[in-house]
């Protein structure tokens, strides 16, 4: 056993050093958010002498993070629910049903997964402007759903392709139609794949920046990342306030990541491989 | 063979399209048609609101490749590939090589933290690192003073010389944990006998690294290259929240130039042309790396 630990010790050392590099900036930000601004300069990484929530209160009310938070929640909820639902249907179609023209339709949807947002943002900006939809939730939701269903369809279809044939046959014999087979038999089995899709689309939408930056014209419609970017321009010198804002933006994704990390890591590694 | 692709007796063969339709419609309207429209717009000279748009053929593209701003942006993106892709892959390979060989109790705890930068909004990352790089109160300059290296203190993000590598190194910080987790998962597939055989043949650590670990991780390295290079080519949020392309145009990147040309300056056609070039580079790159991976797998089979 002693030999074992002697071999492990240098590995832990390497792991810890590189972990500290990842963690220190985040830690410093977190500590700053709980300090008064005067306390920070001396030792940015130390625990606060006196813990204060005042920065969060100020960011939340004066900084309007309550408004940004509400917008982010509305947009993200709408995108996640509709994208996952629609992707389940379309993934089921590609994975289980005969599709005329499949060889054309499938690569067509794959394209959306590979092109960057930059390729679609210019016409969307013009069209939604003309339609008077630019400064609305629609402008933040619909394009994001369009991109999400592209990945979601691929993701779900590869799940449905691999469901056991016997199961589907048995359901058919029992008199299930396609709709019933999907929701009663396959949907419960698809829970891990669906959870992965939910957390990935949640993260992408919550963190989305370019679309919201381009579409939103008023402070009242900003999502958290855009709100933080503008907030930063305004309160550059007040680090503790900015730190509180940054924590508010990051906290939901970090929490969901910690709760669902198995799905996150599998999805991000698997999603990359699949595409 | 898939389980599906067969119609039930008496079922319309169009039923699948019904399930596909809602997702496909939204995709068509908000992704596919806009891509086509961007492509079309790139052949016109248009300010976005006037009635007349002038067809100028490849005019925008010709202008592009003699535009010093575009060339600057593209070359900055290449520098970003070094920081976003090549450095993290090298660090990830070295780390995973050091950690390979035997299971490490408690590794999942480390893995959670190594992956953390991947889930945080890049605007938050930008805010964090703007503070780290702050010329007066930033921890990096404070640390340099602490260890007596005052002469190395810089106005990192405000310096023509250092802003680009400074922002780039943020990308390295974000990506190396991802690469390491990816490689360590792959390394577990390499049979332990390979190392043993190599040791018997007298292959030292470096040789094992070059001849066993790197070839064994080919498909993981390919995946890491695709994702990190695309991130390097698409970098926008980070630039917006740290330097906005400055000082001067020293950290200008393609994504930011698209935003500036098409959205801020209303040069729709020109911005569309840049967007098309960026898209084609990204598509070509992922196609190329994927093909390389497939050939490698073909050889092994």
Overall average residue pLDDT of chain B:
89
Briefly note the CATH topology name of the largest domain in chain A.
MetI-like fold
Dominant shape of chain A: globular
Helix content of chain B: 55-70%
How many domains in all of chain B? 1
**How many discrete structural domains of chain A?**
2
Instruction: Look up the CATH topology of chain B.
Output: MetI-like fold
Structural class by SSE content of chain A: mainly alpha
Give the name of the CATH superfamily of the largest domain in chain A.
Answer: MetI-like
Our measurement of the CA-to-CA distance between the termini of chain B, rounded to an integer number of angstroms, reads: 20 Å
Q: Give the SSE order of chain B as H and E letters.
A: HEEHHHHHHHHHHHH
Strand order of the largest sheet of chain B: 1-2
Beta fraction of the residues of chain B?
under 5%
Order of helices and strands of chain A: HHHHHHHHHHHHHH
Largest sheet of chain B: 2 strands, antiparallel
Oligomer: heterodimer
CATH architecture of the largest domain in chain A: Orthogonal Bundle
Summed up, what is this model?
Chain A is mainly alpha-helical and 275 residues long.
Task: Label this structure with key terms.
heterodimer; A: 275 residues; mainly alpha; MetI-like fold; 2 domains; 14 helices; B: 301 residues; two-stranded antiparallel sheet; 2 strands; 68% helix; globular
Explain what the structure shows.
The complex is a heterodimer of chains A (275) and B (301). By secondary structure, chain A is mostly helical. Chain A folds into 2 domains: 2-52, no CATH class; 63-274, MetI-like fold (Orthogonal Bundle). Chain A has 14 helices and no strands. Chain B has a single domain (40-300), classed as MetI-like (MetI-like fold), CATH 1.10.3720.10. Chain B is mainly α. In chain B, helix 3 runs antiparallel to helix 12 (254-264). Chain B has a two-stranded antiparallel sheet with strand order 1-2. At the A-B interface, helix 1, helix 4, helix 5, helix 6 and helix 7 of A face helix 1, helix 3, helix 4, helix 5 and helix 7 of B.
